[in-house]
Design a protein that fits this description.
Blueprint: E1 2-6, H1 13-24, E2 28-30, H2 31-40, H3 46-53, H4 60-70, E3 80-83, H5 89-101, E4 108-113, H6 116-125, E5 126-129, E6 135-137, E7 149-150, H7 157-180, E8 184-188, H8 193-203
The structure holds adenosine monophosphate (AMP).
Length: 207
C-alpha cells in the first residue's frame, strides 16, 4: 500500500492518516516532520532552515533525497503513506521514477475535500486546553469550565486563510497531474471522523 495523502490544513488529514497507517501497518512519512527533526538536531544547512521559516519550499533535491532514503527503511517494506510530499510536479515525477527503479508504483493519491468556509469556521471556533492539549470546538464540543483554553495562533482566521491558499496553490498543479495519471481519489472530508474513514477505505478499495 503506497499512498500519497493530501488535504488542506484543518481537514482532519492527520487523524485519517494515522488510522490508515495503523490499519495497514505502514509508516506515515512526513517531509515536514523529517525536516523539523533535522533542524532541531542542527543537521539542516542555514539556507534550508531559512526557507522553512519563511514558509517557502526547500529545494526538491533535499526532500527527494529524504524520501529516497526513508522509503527504503525496513518498516516501509509493506508500503507507506506520504504526507507533505510530493508538493510539486517535479517531486511527483521524481517519486514515480524512484519507485519504478525499484519495480514499484504508487497505488493512489487520496485527497480530502473540505470546503474552505468550513475549514475556516472549524479553526476560528477551535480552542485548545493549554495543559492537556485537548482540542475543543465552541459549538460542537464546548470545553468544560475548568479547561485552560487558548485560541492558537495557527487557528487565527488570517493565518488559516493564508495556509489554505498555500495549499490551493500547491494542489492546483499536483492534483490535475495525478488525475491525468488516473491515480487521484477525491474523498469527501465533511462529516463524522468514522464516516470519513469509511470513505477513505472505499477510495483505497479496502472495504
Ligand atoms: P509541513 O509540516 O508539511 O507543512 O512542512 C513544513 C515545511 O517544510 C514547509 O513549509 C516547507 O518549507 C518544508 N517542506 C516540507 N515538505 C516539503 C516538500 N515536499 N517540498 C518542499 N518543502 C517542503
Amino acid at each position: 500500500m503506497r499512498i500519497v495523502f493530501v488535504g488542506p490544513p484543518g481537514s482532519g488529514k492527520g487523524t485519517q492518516a494515522k488510522f490508515l497507517c495503523d490499519k495497514f501497518g505502514i509508516p506515515q512519512i512526513s517531509t515536514g516532520d523529517m525536516l523539523r527533526a533535522a533542524k532541531s538536531e542542527g543537521r539542516l544547512p542555514p539556507e534550508i532552515t531559512k526557507a522553512m521559516e519563511s514558509g517557502g519550499l526547500v529545494p526538491d533535491s533535499v526532500v527527494i533525497g529524504l524520501i529516497e532514503e526513508r522509503t527504503q527503511q525496513p518498516d516501509a517494506a509493506k508500503g507507506f503513506l506520504l504526507d507533505g510530499f510530493p508538493r510539486t510536479v517535479p517531486q511527483a515525477d521524481a517519486l514515480s521514477a524512484m519507485l519504478s527503479k525499484r519495480g514499484l508504483a504508487l497505488d493512489c493519491v487520496v485527497a480530502l475535500d473540505v470546503p474552505e468556509n468550513l475549514l475556516i469556521e472549524r479553526a476560528v471556533l477551535r480552542r485548545t486546553d493549554k495543559r492537556t492539549g485537548q482540542i475543543y470546538h465552541l459549538s460542537y464540543k464546548p470545553p468544560p469550565p475548568d479547561a485552560v483554553i487558548e485560541h492558537r495562533v495557527d487557528d487565527q482566521e488570517d493565518v488559516v486563510r493564508r495556509r489554505i491558499s498555500t495549499y490551493q496553490a500547491m494542489t492546483s498543479e499536483l492534483l490535475p497531474h495525478y488525475e491525468r495519471l488516473g491515480l487521484l481519489r477525491r474523498v469527501n472530508g465533511v462529516g463524522d471522523v468514522a464516516d470519513v474513514t469509511q470513505r477513505c477505505l472505499a477510495a483505497l478499495g479496502r472495504v
